[in-house]
Design a protein that fits this description.
A six-stranded parallel sheet has the order 3-2-1-6-4-7. A two-stranded parallel sheet has the order 5-8. Helix 1 (13-25) packs parallel to helix 2, helix 1 runs parallel beside helix 8 (145-156) and helix 6 runs parallel beside helix 8. The protein is built from twelve helices and eight strands. It folds into two domains: 2-165, Alpha/beta knot; 169-244, no CATH class. By secondary structure, the protein is an alpha/beta fold.
Amino acid sequence: MRLRVVLVEPIYEGNVGSVARAMKNFGFRDLVLVRPCKIGDFGFAMASHAKDIIEGAKVVESLEEAVAGANLVVGTTGVRGLSTDRHLRVPSLSPRELAERLQGTDGEVALLLGREDDGLSREELVDCDIVVSIPTGCEYPIMNLSHAAAVLFYELSQVEPGYLDLASPENLAHLLDYFRAALSESEYHQHKIEKTMLMLKRIFGRARLTDREVQTLHGVVRNLRWGAEHRGCEFEEDGAVQEAEGEELPEK
């Protein structure tokens, strides 16, 4: 597993420096900053011997650019189902549960850490494959950015590398598009489609899917869509045969 740490619009340079220091403490180096504050002497002082991580950080203008190519996008939140957007935040994993899910995998994980004052936005959480929350006391659940980062980095540093290749983001996105099309074509309640798609995205994120498994699911949905369109006709087996032989499935 390769970890890419993404700080989304950090407000305080001291926190950027402290996060960089925690990254180096636990062996991580890949830092991406989305529209960050200016980082000056204080930020570098807080980084201490991790100045090189800040100097080597990639600065981008959009979250899309920050997570491009990542196999898995993990969002963090200090709010666990206490808002009207409860379905966005649950089920959330603890840092240890996330580390356990990633054991033995080979792929790039983008870990998003939100703004100090407001965290990640609703739209940013929707785009995440997994949501992680650190179990804290109910009286004061929101942690300082760098403290939360240190907890996450410690747990993720325990992940043992492996050979289970995570599915590519392009293939997962195509599979989700296929599911969306299937729901739209069926008699599924239109007002429930968005929440259902979010649930599917979370399920796929936690499932550690490989490209082979994504291809299998693609073939299953393909034949279900064909069957729904041709009720009463002989069931099409071509998609299943191609999947079994490891061939590429045709576009929808």
